[in-house]
Amino acid sequence: MSAVDGPLAPITNGSSRMNGSALNGKGDTNGDLHDGISEPAPAKPISFDPEVFRSFLASLLPPLFGASPEELESIFDEDFHERASRFAPEGGGVIYVVKKKDEQESEDAPPSYSYKITPTLTYDPSHVTTLAIIKRGPVLDSTFPMSTQLHILNLFGSDETPYESLHAVISGAMKPYFEAFVGARGGGKDGDSKMGIPVTKKKFAELELSLLHLQQNVEIPETHLIIHPIIQRTVEQALQQGHRPNISDLPPKLLNDSTFLNTLQNHVNQWIKSIQTVTRLTRDVSSGTASQEINFWLSLEHALEGIEVQLRSDEVTMVMEALRNAKRFRATVSFVADTGLKDAMDKVHKYNQLMKDFPLNELLSATDLDKIQEAVVLIFLHMNRKLKLSPYPVNRVLPLAEAISRDFNDALLRVLTSTRLLYTPYETFERLLSQTIAIFRTWDDHVKEFTNTAREVTRKRNEKFIPIKVVSAHAKVQDRIRYLRDWRKQHEQLAVMTAPTKGLSGAGNEIGGMDMEAEVKEAYEVMKRIDVLDVTTEGNEIWMTAENAYNERVARVENQIIARLRDRLGTARNANEMFRVFSKFNALFVRPKIRGAIQEYQTQLIDSVKEDIKRLHEKFKTQYRFSEAYHMSQMRDLPPISGAIIWARQIDRQLQAYMKRVEDVLGKGWELYAEGQKLQSESTAFRKKLDVRPVYEAWLHDINRRDMGVGGRLFEIVRLRGGGYQLAVNFDPQIITLFKEVRNLLWQNFQVPHAITNMAKDAKRVYPHAVSLMETVRTYGQTLDLVEHNKGIEWLVAEYRNEAQRMVTRGMNIRWDYFVNQYDTARYVSGDGVRDNKHIQFVRELASVVSILQDKTNNVIDLYKDIQRSVEDLSTCPYTPEAFRDLLSKIQTAIDRLNLEGYANLDHWVAELDERIESILLQRVTHVIQLFCNEFERADDDGRREPVTIASKRRDKRAKNDKSTDGALVLAPIIHEIRIQNQVIFLDPPIEHARAIWVHQLHEWLGTVCRLKRIQSSRYEIGLQMQGHTATDVTYTSLLTRFPDTTLEKPFSLIEQKVQSLKQYVAKWLQFQSLWDLETEYVFNRLGDSLANWQQLLTEIKKARSTFDTTETQKPFGVCVIDYEQVQARVNAKYDAWQRDILSRYGVKLGNAMKEMHAAILKARNELEHHSIEGLVGGVPRRF
């Protein structure tokens, strides 16, 4: 009875509970509250008055035990106070009050009972009633009522077993109380799972089920073999002496004593009868439950094992040896055969192959529908598997399955009844019943499999034929649930359509003055009052009565709906509006009365469907190839034959949808009408045209006629029409189409011949590689075209192109057969380190190499284009160091990126690029030199000029249109002043300064290009950096040595010419220094008295005066200006002084000369006048 403590433990209340250590430090139960407590002030013990407990029991026990207070006085003996005082402080204690029936000397005497209190519980058949008194808290307090501190539990007795009482306590009190508490708490399913509530429910169900099984078990009679006392003593003595008992231990006289031997033989006969009672025990499997059948065979095996153990005992062995020694062979030889123990053990052992580990408890303890479904699956899997191993008769396993069906029915009813189906929302109701129907379907599927297994087992065992059929006990419940589901669905449809949101409720009020929504609810209330799952005769009658009452109320609602529906159909303007009305109220057409009211619109709807079918005819006649579906199929990668078949089947499905539309609206049997027959015949004829079988067979014929296969070399060389050759993949595209056709046809459930399927499988195996190769070859060709169109990158991608060509050369000897044959061997190799064969690796390597070639080519083309743009910009960019450096920096960055990415032949390519850049820069430098020279060569006729802008002075047409070129180059003129200081004339700055400035400016313009850093291909090469380079290798200074003619010499010669012209002009001004350096007397002495010299000097003075005697203050020389404003006045004044002096002196000289000449002439005149003229006339004639 100790098992009772387990289920009673949960009854104790956990509130205000204290453990033993709270009462004493050691946690013992001796009631000493001070032991082990280390506090200096021990707690005061709680006092308890036993008289309060005594009065409580004196009031409680008489009605429960049916005894008078005087009869119960034996409980309150002198030890009661001690027991009560010990019970009160003990934590979680319990005491038991037992009513025991006393033994009677005579049967006629009235029964008498005794009563006692005990702290421990024992079981005895004489116990009539046992009352368990359980404390709710750790201690009892006599100041509070005992009823609030104690649990009272009545454990009934005087039964054969306590199973009935315990089952009643669990199923009637504990389990409902727990479920009521959980339900009132309102926790969600997830929260319950986290708290372990479903597990606890399952444990309660299992405990309840176990107690029920214990009640239902068939008791197997225990067999005890009778042993002769002499044999018993002899065996005990032999065992005490430590040797194996033998008949030699018996007195020899007894071995020949016929009386003794007859007694032993009688005992053996009794053994046979008692063993036969067990071995011949059987039960009717059709009666009782499945658990009783299972427990019967398990218990029978246990009983037979017990008998077998007794038969192997020393006592039985000695009895059999004694009988054999006395030649009583009749009792010994046939003993085993007479008992039938061996056969029974063998049969029971084989039967229990089915019974052991039978998962029936999963079904019986299931608490929800999911558990029930899982249990059904487990049960039938176990039965189907074990029935093939166990010889358990088929004529017994069928009733066993029916018994399981009864348990299955009970489990379903237990779960479904607890949910109150009609009170649940429709979504929950539908979910539960759908799940229930799915469970029924699972049961039917497994029963079908079970019956097939039973037939197979019957055929193998050659047993007598019996009908293999399982009569399900849940058939009525299954029919009721299906009917209930349909009924609730129709009701919900009616309730939804009569709701205010559908507009029918208001219409009903207008027509008939009835609130349809309320009427439907009232009708449903009638059904909610009954048990809808009661399928007994009485339950069926109640169901029919309630359903008739429901139908009466609903009929009035249907009449209102019919009136409204006919009004809407009557006002419909075309068939589409009718179909919209039908689609809106289609949920109501399941009701026969409403369905019959709309049949008059049959003709109109048939005409509408005819029009739709006619449009399908037109669609079909346009042919698949000219339809939009054909182009869509190509986009979806559907081959032509499969696309045509799918297209035809789509039209067929649309035709069926139109037919189904008419059937849904007009009801079943619509094709029996005259118009319906015609429509049916037209649709049938059209469907014959939509038959895709001829298309499929024509395709099969075409494939069989062709010689298609996967073979040959991997690559082929194709001659192009325009000349030349091209690499291509030797793979027939029709093979790819075949593979896709077969795949889609198999999806369409066509039976493709095995040979074509194998061919398609071969194509499928190599298809990924073929597509990869074709894509790789196409990419390779496109990449080579890119290289061809970009000649400048050939050197850079030469290494990657050579690698791709090596791979192509390697693949020229590979054949497709290698892929087909070696693919299968590789796919079944086990292990993690599976590697593809070399041919598949080749495809991947080729794709990788070509992909790298493509990436490198695209990358280098982008960089090459950037470099080209930068190089082209060098010829048009502004002539500034920043512009050139930016462009060269971009070029160098691109070259560095090429170097980092490892392009081959970069040195050679960069060298060629550098030569091109040099030629462009050389042109720029030559042009700049020409500009410089033009400035020095240009004649300056405009006088004083503004600063010169070189870009505005370009003569070539290209430079005039380029606004950005050389716009920042300015050649400003240099101003030299002629000064006089300390009577010394000098040029400031000197002419050599102008030469230096012009040369420096020329150098600056040339340095704009020559100082630029050259592009390098090896900036990331450590070895080259360590070798070092000269300055000429780093910059473009060497361009100055690249001029083909005297271009570079010309500006320097022009500078020298300009300097000479300046010197000549300045020399004239410097000559005026003599105006201050010369002495007048020295000049006069030099001139002497020669008037011609004086005249010449005056002429030269007048001519030299034009140098400074002007209104201008500057003398321009193109890029240089001589400013003489500062000395002009002083030189002019000095010059005037000199001119006056010389002129005055010249006047004196001239006057003196004139005087002398006049005197000479006068003298000569006088002399002439004194000569006679006659002497002259006679003389020789003279010629003048």
UniProtKB/TrEMBL annotation:
Belongs to the dynein heavy chain family. This is Dynein heavy chain, cytoplasmic. One of its GO terms (molecular function) is dynein light intermediate chain binding. PANTHER family: AAA+ ATPASE DOMAIN-CONTAINING PROTEIN (PTHR46532:SF4), MALE FERTILITY FACTOR KL5 (PTHR46532). It comes from Trametes pubescens (White-rot fungus). Coiled coil: none annotated. GO terms for cellular component: axonemal dynein complex. Residues 1-41 are annotated as: Disordered. It holds the Pfam family DHC_N1. Residues 12-22 have a biased composition (Polar residues). One of its GO terms (biological process) is microtubule-based movement. Residues 261-823 form the Dynein heavy chain tail domain.
